[in-house]
Design goal:
This protein is mainly beta and 215 residues long. The chain has helices at 50-53, 94-97, 120-126, 175-180; strands at 2-6, 38-40, 56-58, 64-65, 68-69, 75-77, 91-93, 110-111, 142-149, 151-155, 167-171, 188-192, 197-201, 205-210.
Length: 215
Amino acid sequence: MPGMRILSAVSLAAVGVPCVAALPSQRPPEEENTQCLLYQGTGCQAITDKATCLTSRDGRVMDYIEGHDTRSQPCVWCGGEPCEPAGANLCESYSRVVGNPAVQPPASWISANCLDGRDVNESLARAKSRPAPAAMTSRNAFEPVGGGTDQACRGARPEGLGTQWSYSIWSAKSLEECMAYCDETCGGVEYKHADHYCEIWHESITGSASEPGFA
């Protein structure tokens, strides 16, 4: 499957609500295996229920927000209370809450983790069925980039420079589900089936590079 660039506006899929038990953990992310966690492209702070929070990691475009690691950080559930005294978010990225001198950690918090030994395939399989988007994106709305399979998208801005990327990250069961996250502001998608890894590009895709397994 080739990399895909958007040709027309499509609808944004509703965010799914996983139903996967997570064992309590208060260990830092570097001590955890987080490979089973599902990327949430709108960020941990957009999650409002415990089950989703404890099976998720942050997929926003920013590496850092206000000086704190954000991208790929496991989400933290703050015991059903706001994670910050003056805030309203019930779920936040790990470094936003833990080890942040500007925030008093909540009395009860748990970090998303993979302590039960599952992988991302199991997380997706055991998740509740995601609501169907208002209009599933048709492959006809996209065009291949690079002319074939094993192509990863590239934009005008070199990746890895600065703290903001060209895309947010989601976990998706299929290329079609990945496409369904692409709304009218999206420039295209990239998908790797082996990891259920989905990039939603918020800038124009100008080309591609050879990367085995990517579509």
